[in-house]
Amino acid sequence: MAEHTAAPVTDTAAPAGTTTSTNNAAPGSTTLWVERTGTRRYTGRSSRGAEVLIGSENVPGVFTPGELLKIALAACSGLSSDFPLSRRLGDNYDATIRVSGAADRENEVYPQLDEVFELDLSELDPEARERLLVTVQRAIDKVCTVGRTLKAGTNVTLSFDIDTAD
């Protein structure tokens, strides 16, 4: 197998069966990759055993890559705010974070992503509610890696590991 490398890859893609000890990932980190499973269908996998079905909008039962981006943002906001919310509301609070944003197909970007955090704060007085929302916003702004990355932008590299007849 010959390798053509345009740029280094770290923590992005790995062929089936690759473990953290055989890729460029840092020791102890999770290896992530996608495998083609059909026309316009992939399965995303992690070295921790997680799987997600990925495909085009017209493929039933899958997420599109753009939907996964949005879900990652909403999930990161939820996880980032879990500690202050559970501390104030208890471990069994209900929350839903809806995320939306239309793609600009001419430029193939999402120019705007909007999150709506649905919480029942009716048991709190207005001042306590405001304090909690400020704390939650600060927590998300400080530790939501997905949101921080989207806001800052990031460098993305791609390399190829190819089979050749040589």
UniProtKB/TrEMBL annotation:
Residues 1-31 are annotated as: Disordered. InterPro entries: KH_dom-like_a/b, OsmC/Ohr_fam, OsmC/Ohrsf. It holds the Pfam family OsmC. It comes from the Bacteria. This is OsmC family protein. It comes from Nocardia cyriacigeorgica. The lineage of its organism: Bacteria, Bacillati, Actinomycetota, Actinomycetes, Mycobacteriales.
